[in-house]
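Hi support team,

I submitted a single chain yesterday and got back a structure, but I'm not sure I'm reading the token output correctly. Could someone confirm the output below corresponds to the sequence I sent? I've pasted both exactly as they appear in my results page.

Thanks,
R.
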Amino acid sequence: MQPSYLSKERAQGKEFDAGLRNFMNNVYFKMATGVLLTALVALGVGSSPALIELFLGGPQKYIVIFAPLAILWFGFNPMTMKSSHLMMAFYAVSVAYGISFAAIAFIASHDLTFAINVAKAFFVATAMFAGLSIYGYTTKADLSPMRTFITMGIWGLIAASLMNIYFGSDMMSNVIAGVGIVLFSGLTVWQTQEMKLMYHSAMGMEIGERLAWAAALNLYISFIALFQYILHFMNQR
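Hi R., thanks for writing in. Yes, this is the structure output for that exact sequence:
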């Protein structure tokens, strides 16, 4: 007969595993709804030349392009904001990305080759993201040392991207895309492990929802970045 404390520990372990699984599923579901919303907005705006002109036809396009960064910087703080406010900020980012992708949807609707490349890029990004996230969830290695390197790399990537808006160098664009795939692949792995480690079975529902929205946004941005950079290389072929 097993000691009672062993039975209790096993019961707690099963409860933790079930709670962690539900938490992870919740995060991936939220992320998936964001990706779906982005696709729907891109298709909706991209199907209307008038809307494309309204959002992307002049200097206002830079507002659309940088809106996600502004929301992330000023309007997304899981430590102080309610989960309902985090949800609205998450979907605002998803809509902003959808508008910025409207040009992609418009071109795809008129160019079969480009549309096929978009589909290929999406499936490759999805497969990569799934594999990277599974690795991040299952690996026993401590990935925390990656954080500083990846963070610095992404800031450098943003700076290089801003510079290339002015220079318009194809070679620099290719380098940025290649480095971006590497950095956001690493970020996906690290974020998945971090998401797993930050879960605690004793945390309340509100705290759990805040963490879930934060994790969903992080993974969403990584997926979108992978898709963009992979699409860049698909169109070089």
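A quick pointer for reading it: The chain is about 85% helix and 0% strand. Let us know if anything else looks off.

Best,
Support desk
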